[in-house]
Amino acid sequence: MTELKELFVSFVDAGNGLLWGSVLIYLLIGAGLYFTIRTGFLQFRSFGHMFSLIKVSREGADGGISSFQAFSTSLAARVGTGNMAGVAVAIYLGGPGAVFWMWVTALVGMSTSFVESTLAQAYKVNHKDNTFRGGPAYYIEKGLGQRWLGIAFAICLIVAFGLAFNGVQSNSIAAAMNTAFGTDNTWVGIILAIGVAPIIFGGMRSVARVAELVVPFMAIGYLIVAVYVIAINIGVLPEIFATIVKSALGFEQAAGGAIGAAMMQGIKRGLFSNEAGMGSAPNAAATATTRPNHPAAQGYVQMLGVFIDTIVICTATASIILLSGMLDTESGLTGIALTQAALVTEVGPWGAGFVAIAILLFAFTSLIANYSYGESNIEYIFKSKLAINIYRVAVLAMVVIGAVVDLPTVWAFADLSMGMMAMINLVAILGLSGVAFALLKDYEAQRKAGKTPTFDRKKFPKLDKEIDKDVWQ
């Protein structure tokens, strides 16, 4: 039995080393660059349009899930422990230059997010309750005609996001609360499960409503504190940014800050944080009733999620750490402990408690959003209410277990599952990218003509054969 376990661990470690050490990083960045070029650098030339769509994103849902609610749900999943602990680890291992490569990854990844979210909207299906379902599993089956591959994707997502990563989020909450307030991990896990239960048993609408209320509040609150830290250190801010760029490009070879380490850590942590290309966010994007009524509209909105997650919130954490002077590669202080120590240095003892509360909100919203991704994929495979309820109980069990037990092998297996789902999704969106490009062209042509973009499926004969006619009349 011990030999079998060691063999499994070796297999998981080797798989993660291959996927995350080389293949996925190059594939994600390569796909992002390809999409950026093919869309004419959409994320830069249409930056203002993303915000204009957010202004009307609460309209037109008619009892369904609005574009803003879908955006908030995906942002809830993106903005989690990675924005606080992950950024600290990246800077500790890769030096300040890691921040620069996180920015690059996000800017490139915005175009990938547009493509996958536009496809999710195009191939979404009517759920018969004024809401929709969709995501990679659905566009893989409908667009590529490969249900078996859609099921493989769904299984990987359920294992990674639906179960294991919810244990990780619970573990992070319990650890942060214990450090700040001395709370018992078991009780934290139980209370979390009690708090999560009514939300997830309320289904996708319930998750969307909570995300819509909590996500803006938590993001703005965290940014206010970060802006305060930046304001009181405004004189050294240019020096900090210069250090980031020099370290990233190899002009400043400080310990742990070599260009290779900075690039690898920044790209890897950036991808983990903003999830562009992973195939997770499209599950939320597909649920939206968009305004304008066109698949590309939600693609624009989801691009903004990548920007806020990495360029805004991750940069806020990096600024707190670098401005505090607490970064010391010899100290062993990293992860959430480094972020807490940095904020305490800047604002006083209450900083540790603030980080704990921020982690609670960030991880809690990630937990319910991750659940919603899993529900959509459970439904894709089984189309059974019983299966969904079994999944809900399993999620609550993982919340409690994750709070009290450190299961590194399970987390490593979750990384492998996420890597596999990302591979499947990237192959799919590259294969279907022509559809997304055609939809973008149609959307922009209507805007240029002074019209409000509206999707007419008759303009796309091939797509018309594949999409749900109950969704797109």
List keywords for this structure.
globular; two-stranded parallel ribbon; mainly alpha
What profile does the largest beta sheet have? 2 strands, parallel
Unreliably modeled segments: none
Strand order of the largest sheet: 1-4
Task: Assign an overall shape.
Answer: globular
Tell me how many strands there are. Answer: 4
Please outline what is shown here.
The chain contains 20 helices and 4 strands. It has helices at 2-38, 42-45, 47-55, 67-78, 85-94, 97-122, 136-144, 147-181, 185-201, 203-232, 237-248, 259-274, 281-285, 295-324, 335-347, 350-382, 385-404, 408-431, 433-448, 461-466, and strands at 65-66, 125-126, 132-133, 288-289. β2 (125-126) and β3 (132-133) form a beta hairpin.
Textual characterization of the structure:
The protein is mainly alpha-helical and 473 residues long. The protein has 20 helices and four strands. A two-stranded parallel sheet has the order 1-4. Strands 2-3 form a two-stranded antiparallel ribbon. The longest helix has 37 residues, at 2-38.
Topology (elements, then pairings):
Elements: H1 2-38, H2 42-45, H3 47-55, E1 65-66, H4 67-78, H5 85-94, H6 97-122, E2 125-126, E3 132-133, H7 136-144, H8 147-181, H9 185-201, H10 203-232, H11 237-248, H12 259-274, H13 281-285, E4 288-289, H14 295-324, H15 335-347, H16 350-382, H17 385-404, H18 408-431, H19 433-448, H20 461-466
Parallel strand pairs: 1-4
Antiparallel strand pairs: 2-3
Helix pairs in contact: 1-6, 1-18, 3-14, 4-10, 4-14, 4-16, 5-12, 5-15, 6-11, 6-12, 6-14, 6-19, 7-8, 7-18, 8-9, 8-16, 8-17, 8-18, 9-16, 9-17, 10-14, 10-16, 14-15, 15-16, 16-17
